Every structure is written in structure tokens, then in C-alpha cells.
Amino acid sequence: MVMLLATLSFAAPGDAGYGEGIAALKAKDGPAAEAALALCHQEAPERLDCLWELGWAHWLQNDWAGVVEVWQQVDAAEPGRAELTTYLPQAQRNLALQQELAASSAEAPATFVSAAPDGATLRLRAVGDMMLGTTFPAGYLPADDGQGLLDGVAGWMADADLTFANVEGPLCDEGVSRKCAPDSTNCYAFKSPTRYGQYFADAGVDLASLANNHSGDFGEACRRASETTLDELGIAWSGPPGSIATAEANGLKVAMIAFHSSTECNYINDHATAKALVAKADATHDIVIVSFHGGAEGSKALHVPDEMELFYGEQRGHLRVFTHEVVDAGADLVLGHGPHVPRAIEVYEGRLIAYSLGNFATYGRFNLSGHLGTGFVLETTMDAEGRFAGGRILSTKQEGRGVPVQDPTHAAADLVRKLSTEDFPATGVRVAADGSLAAP
Fold first, then answer.
1. What is the pTM of this model?
2. pLDDT tens across 357-413, in order?
3. Residue 287 — φ and ψ, nearest 5°?
4. What is the residue range of 81's domain?
5. Are residues 320 and 296 in the same domain?
6. In 3-state terms, what secondary structure has residue 419?
7. Which of the ends of the chain has fewer CB neighbours closer than 10 A, N or C?
8. What span, in angstroms and rounded, lies between the C-alpha atoms of 373 and 396?
9. In which region does residue 319 sit, left (phi positive, over 0), alpha (psi from -120 to 50) or beta (all else)?
10. Each residue of 13-23: b (16+ CB within 10 Å) or e?
11. Around 30, how many Cα atoms within 13 Å sit in the side-chain half-sphere?
12. How far apart (Å, rounded) are the C-alpha atoms in residues 55 and 314?
């Protein structure tokens, strides 16, 4: 008789909790991940892997105090851990913002007295993604160094009380890419020359979003350089946690807060903090605009699903919930960008929500086939209380490698009409043949 002896294996302390925690993290189930990884840490306090992943469980729940607490323990046990140098400061900045907003909400509310004259209105024009050429990699700057690149649409952009644009990538002359090797040709990192900031100013841009997935392509130094350039040009910006842009027009004080699915920016997935930030701005401004860079990307991302959108595993926002919650908190206009295609527009509680303005001027490195090359200038007029009073879609398209021009076929208006009807049957904006907008 041949006897087979089984080899016995013994699980290390904490293994069960660790495995369950990792599975929960992959499923984006923060509470389940926290419970499992806390048990792992309890059973094996010496295991830094349990503690490190426990931080991510707190992160999923926007529990910045929990993230900072456990990661500071990891840092004490393993100083200089590479991931901590990147992510711990982000958690600390978001915790500081939460604490600041909590403290300000506990104070007696300030009395805001509007200086706007009776009957004041605001006519704003907004465009989506703008990247006017990049020095990385070489060979992607437009002809004549960008002179005239916006000539076909600049008149449309500037014809407004205020004009908004998303600046897709930093305006910077130095910096090293964090995500692309120097010789990479199939990696997307953008860096436009600092001098290109003048093109935004010449086209009438007053408000700029620096909250997007390319604003940090070349590190914090380039973020700061972009902010400095826009300051010098008189363009108000928002992007990093807590930042609020302010402008004035027709006696109205206007705030703009830009969000993105990165904690390096005002964070689109932390709804509680977003609402508190909007409420703070609403207490001291006539009109509050929220910009967001969110949603899945590409030609198939035309519709707005009623769920958290994922793109390559990244949570890009539950946009129907986010937009309604910020309006409930005091936002008067919500401007989306990021999917690279136009999306629906709805009117919620008398406020306009545009879910994606599409690609507007994205030279050199963008796929512009189909509706990826369809853009528009959104015009909206608001009364002094921020209520939608009318607007229109001025359709554009990109030619060649990414030169924006007016589109006489009105493709963007036709597309937004269709999508608004399909995605928001009851609240979708009504789009006339000439692009004029009306509430449902």
C-alpha cells in the first residue's frame, strides 16, 4: 500500500482579512475593505501591508482623517516609502480642507449683500477641453507657433460677460513627466508653452479650470507655473483642493469651483466636501459655477449613466448625483468636460447642467474622428439669482490636426438635442434647430 501524505500549509496571521480586504478594495467596497483590513491589522500589528491597504479603504470612503492616521503609522515604521510621498500629502490636504470647511460652517453665517443692480443678468459662454499644442513629445506644436489657431472661434468665445474654458494640461516651460518616459511616443502627457497662455486671454477666457487628468502631467512645479501665468493674464482659476475662482460682471460677484476625479484637485467623489465648498462660495457670491472633469472617455461615452462611471478602473464620478447635490448646495450652473464628446444638457431646479462640452481645441495628440471632433460654445444667460433664462449652442468642429472652426451643419446642437431627450426625458433642455435653448 502506498500512502500519500498531505502537505499541510498554515496561513500567516492576518492572511484571511488581508485577502478579503483586497477583494473588497477591487470591488470598490470601502466599508467591507475597512472591516477586513482592520481585522488583519489587529491579528498581525507588525504587517505594514495590512495597514497600507487599510489606508486605501479609508480613502474610498473619503475618510481623510482615517487615511492620515494609518499612513502616518506606516511612515513611522517605514520612512520614505515611495507611495507615501505621493499620496499622504494629498490626503493631508483634503483633511485640512474638510477641517477648514467644518470650522467655517460652525461660525455665524456672514451676511452677503449683493451689489448687483436690479434686473442684472449674466451671459456666460463656455467651452470644453483646450490643449493648444504640446512640447512633449516633440513635433506637436501648431504652425506659426499657434498664431491664428483660434481665429475661427475666438469671436464666439469672447462675446460674453464671462467666458469659461478647461485648460487641458499645464502651461509650463520646464518640468519632467511623472507618467511618461522621455522617449515615449504612446503615452499622453501634455505641456503647452507658457506663452500660449496669451492665446487664452486673447480669446476672452476669464475663468479657467485647472482640474483635469493632465493638469499634473509634469508635477507640482508646472501646476504652480500654470497658476502664476493665468494670474498674470488676469484669468481666474480653480483646481487644487479648496481653490475658488472669483470674477465680477454686471455688478454680479461670480465664483467658479473646478472638480476632478483626482484628490490633487477639488475631488468629485467627495460629495460632502464638494457641497460644503459650494455652500461656502454661495454665502459670499451672487452666482456659483461648478466645473467638473469627469465621466468615461471616448466615442462610446455619449450617454450619462445613473451610476458611478469607471474608466480604466478609476472612479470618474456618479455625475447625476454629483451635479444635483451641488445645485442643491447652491450651484447655479454646472459645466462638465472630460469625456471628449458632447453629452446631454438638463435643467434641474431652474439651473442648467451641461454634462460634457466635448473637445473644443485639442491640437496634435487627440483622436478627432466622429464626435470626438465635435465641440460647441455653450451660451447661457442667468438672472441675478442664477436661474437659467435662455441660451444657445454654437456648434464647432476641429479640422486637420485640431484647428477649431464654426460648424454650419449644427452637428453639436443636433447631437445634444438627441442626447438630452434620450437621457433626461423630463428635464432635458430643449434645443431648437438654430441651437437656441429653452427649459423643458
1. 0.94
2. 999 999 999 999 999 999 999 999 999 999 999 999 999 999 999 999 999 999 999
3. -130, 135
4. 15-106
5. yes
6. helix
7. N
8. 9
9. alpha
10. bbeebbebbbe
11. 13
12. 17
Q: What is the pLDDT of residues 321-348, one digit of tens each?
A: 999 999 999 999 999 999 999 999 999 9
Grid cell in block for residue 207: 475663468
Grid cell 474610498 in the structure block, residue: 60
CA pair distance 272, 283, nearest whole angstrom:
17
Residue 401 sits in the same domain as residue 314: yes
- Does residue 100 fall inside a structural domain? yes
Q: Which of 106, 140, 159 is the last residue of a domain?
A: 106
Beta strands 388-399 and 403-406 are antiparallel
CA distances from 358 to 127, 344, 354, 378, 399 (A): 8, 11, 10, 11, 15
Q: For residue 344, give the amino acid letter.
A: A
Please tell me what DSSP assigns to residue 169. Answer: S
Which helix (H) or strand (E) element contains residue 207? strand 207-209
Whether the bond between 13 and the residue before it is cis, its omega within 30 degrees of 0, is no
CB 380 within 8 A of CB 333: yes
**156, amino acid identity:** W
State the pLDDT at residue 35.
Answer: 97
* Residue 112 one-letter amino acid: F
Q: Has residue 112 been placed in a domain? A: no
How far apart (Å, rounded) are the C-alpha atoms in residues 57 and 409? 49
CATH number of residue 66's parent domain? 1.25.40.10
- Percent helix, strand, coil in the chain, to 5, is 35, 25, 40
Give domain status of residue 116, yes or no: no
Q: Is 246 found in the same domain as 198?
A: yes
The CA distance from 215 to 364, in Å, is 17
**Last-in-domain residue among 63, 79, 106:** 106
Q: How far apart are CA 262 and CA 268, in angstroms?
A: 8
- 3 in a structural domain: no
Does 260 lie in the same domain as 143? Answer: yes
Report the C-alpha gap between 208 and 126 in whole angstroms.
10
Helix and strand tally (H, E) in the chain? 11, 19
